[in-house]
Sequence to fold (168 residues):
Amino acid sequence: MSKVTNIVVAGLGGQGVLKGTDILADVALRAGYDVKKSEIKGMSQRGGSVTGDVRFGDQVFSPMVPGGEADFLLVLEPTQVEPHRYMLRPGGLLITPDAVQAAQLPNKKTLNVALLGALSAHLPMAEEQWLTALRTGFAENFFAGNRKAFLIGRGSQKSEARSPKSEG
Fold:
């Protein structure tokens, strides 16, 4: 049985959770993995909780990450850490907005991409595969800012030890 990587992305409506999971699924597909994705939108259009699950590996049967089995929990809004912490497996990695310095980002709307960059430093996909997925995931006029945000996030993790951490 092959290892499946489980990722949960959580935030509020309008923060780019769904776009982030689309890009994550795209890059895993480009890297040759079997990919499954699911979303829970709720009242997302007015700032309600939004989550997206992405699972990839040699063979994935279900799109939903079971509670306590997420290898990575990427949270775009600090208030969403505690409601979703139960999804993270022991030793899993929690990535929150303080993983990047917001003042370095091209604008606040690129936080989701910056946090994908932070996540990317812990995944087996090549940087170029991520950049290709970003280029196809956004209109050309948004690519430069999102590329910069992604590289800021990716760089923020390269300076840290690669061991799993838990913030809280």
